[in-house]
Specification:
Blueprint (H helix, E strand, L loop, with lengths): L1 H33 L5 E10 L4 E13 L3 E3 L1 H11 L2 H22 L7 E5 L2 H4 L4 H12 L6 E6 H6 L1 H13 L3 E7 L6 H6 L4 E4 L1 H5 L5 H16 L3 E4 L5 H9 L4 E2 L10 H13 L1
Helix pairs in contact: 1-2, 3-5
The chain binds ligand C2E and magnesium ion (3 copies).
Ligand C2E binds next to strand 2, helix 2, helix 3 and strand 6.
Protein name: Diguanylate cyclase
Organism: Chroogloeocystis siderophila 5.2 s.c.1
């Protein structure tokens, strides 16, 4: 009895694995065509200055409007894009679109300081030897000044290939681009080595912000990270601010920027434009 149960379990497991492999393959095939079929789109989430509650810029967040499955989260398809190398063309597409849109906003809204744009960069993209050349080309094509572009990378990119990363960061800096470390706190979280890389800002992962109000320990951690970042001349962005209590605490710490549902969800381009419009008028 036990044996047959074991067998059945095994079979279920295999079938499950098979189903998953097939759907992964399907996803991969679909993703290949997604760019040309214009199924990819960019949402924009405001990054707000906590000093005056004004929109400083946006983070570009990729979405896939799949023909049968609907909107697919980047958490699901970015790993597939990485694995297949599709992240390279997709990444350049995101950069181009986001820079282009930001330039349009800058020309449209001249009464406010030029809006900035944060673009996520994956490890594979970062390992491309011509990344800087391509970004330079995109900046020229879109007319966006490099100082308006912020590139987000994770700590693991810096750790895993420190020499290459240092070289890339210097090249990007020469274009005026600012470098942000994304999801800070979830990885190695060593502030001392970040100093060696001339990082401009840290984005504290939203898991820390989320538990800030409820447990003192997280509050202390966010406070300590913020202080140390400031001592190292880095700005701090708090991710995932959802309550006004969290906002108040972060303002008390002199955290420079914030992002989260309290201000706005990621928005489609038209809605983002409307948000800027309404913030300019008040
Ligand atoms: P991320 O770069 O850390 O982006 C922040 C994520 O937090 C976004 O998820 C955003 O929608 C979500 N978020 C923002 N505020 C709140 C909040 O108040 N509460 C909660 N619960 N969530 C909030 P999203 O858009 O699903 O993106 C997930 C991840 O996918 C991103 O994390 C990033 O690592 C990756 N990603 C997105 N777009 C791109 C892209 O163009 N290229 C690459 N390489 N990765 C991307
Ligand atoms: Mg990010
Ligand atoms: Mg993040
Ligand atoms: Mg993330």
């Amino acid at each position: 009895r036990a044996k047959s149960l074991g067998k059945a379990r095994h079979a279920v497991f295999d079938k499950d694995m098979h189903t998953r492999a097939v759907s992964l393959l399907q996803l991969e095939n679909d993703l290949r065509r997604a760019v040309e079929r214009q199924e990819l789109l960019i949402y924009y989430q405001p990054i707000v200055s906590l000093h005056n509650n004004r929109i400083r810029g946006f983070e570009a967040l990729l979405r896939w409007n799949h023909p049968t499955r609907g909107l697919i989260s980047p958490e699901e398809f970015i790993p597939v894009a990485e694995e297949t190398g599709l992240i390279i063309p997709i990444g350049y597409w995101v950069l181009h679109q986001a820079c282009h849109q930001t330039r349009i906003w800058q020309e449209q809204f001249t009464a406010i300081p030029p809006l900035t744009i944060n673009v996520n960069c994956s490890g594979k993209q970062f390992a491309q030897s011509d990344l800087t050349k391509q970004i330079d080309r995109i900046l020229h094509e879109t007319g966006l000044n490099g100082v308006s572009l912020n590139i987000e990378i994770t700590e693991s990119i810096l750790i895993e290939n420190a020499d290459l990363a240092a070289k890339m960061l210097l090249q990007l800096k020469n274009l005026g681009i600012q470098l942000y470390v994304d999801d800070f706190g979830t990885g190695y979280s060593s502030l001392s080595y970040l100093h060696n890389f001339s990082i401009d800002a840290l984005k504290i992962d939203r898991s820390f912000i989320k538990r800030m109000g409820s447990t003192n320990q997280k509050y202390e951690l966010v406070y300590t990270i913020t202080q140390m970042a400031h001592n190292l001349n880095m700005n701090v962005v708090a991710e995932g601010i959802e309550t006004s209590e969290q906002l108040r605490q972060l303002q008390d710490m002199r955290c420079e920027y914030g992002q989260g549902f309290l201000f706005s969800q990621p928005l489609q381009q038209e809605a983002a434009t409307a948000l800027i419009q309404s913030s300019v008028c008040v």
